[in-house]
Amino acid sequence: MHDPRELPPPRAPEIAFVGRSNAGKSSAINALANRRRLAFVSKTPGRTQLINFFALGRDAYLVDLPGYGYAGVPAAVRAHWETLVGGYIADRSAIALVVVVMDARRPLTDLDLRLLDWLRAAGRRAHVLLTKADKLSRQAAERTLSAARGQLAQAYPGATCQLFSGLKRQGIDTAMEALGRAVDDFGAQKTRAPAKGE
Fold it and tell me: Could you count the other beta carbons within 10 Å of the beta carbon of residue 106?
């Protein structure tokens, strides 16, 4: 979708994936959906330029948002992406969770922190995937995870964080549990009857 006004009507909870260009977002979506080419994987940053919806049965949608932070994209295109993603994040009523994808070798950059500020201001629940964790030694990966969780406790209290590798299928169960909890909680909030006085 190029225009937020053309988005399909909300039908089920949506799990939105966003991250810096080439952070492994499409590979993560493919691994979690157990498909090889659901989202197009490219070595060229900035490939995803639309909002793409993928159904997970009838229970939820995975939503692939355009990447951010790639300097090689023209300014007009970057501005369009910001408008497109900004409108979706701010206004979409069906968002149950925003999964922020970061390369484990370069997590929580200034751009990532700005995105988290934006998500927090919008009141969005966030889960961070530290992708390409297989590129780090076990000790380095655990240090990275511990440091990222410490930063998140300051930058976005309540956000969760984990190591992930689509290539090695590492962290898939943990991620699916986080997605499942978010969908369940979202459904409970939607169906909760208003208490007296509300």
Answer: 13
pLDDT at 67: 79
- pLDDT means per 10 residues in the chain (198 residues)? 68 91 88 63 46 81 81 65 81 94 94 89 95 96 97 93 95 94 89 53
Token pair listed for 141: 């990966």
- CATH number for position 90: 3.40.50.300
Question: The whole model's pTM is what?
Answer: 0.85
* Domain, as residue range, for 133: 4-190
Does 195 map to a domain?
A: no
Q: For the residues of 35-84, what is the DSSP string, one character each?
A: -SSSS---SSTT---S-EEEEETTTEEEEEPPPB--TTS-HHHHHHHHHH
- The H-assigned helical ranges of 7-74 are 25-33
Helical pair 172-191 and 25-33, crossing angle rounded to 10 deg: 80
| DSSP character at residue 60 | E
| 130 phi/psi in degrees, rounded to 5 | -90, 95
Instruction: Judge whether 198 lies within some domain.
Output: no
Residue 42 lies in a domain: yes
Q: Which secondary structure element, helix H or strand E, spans residue 92, and what is its range?
A: none
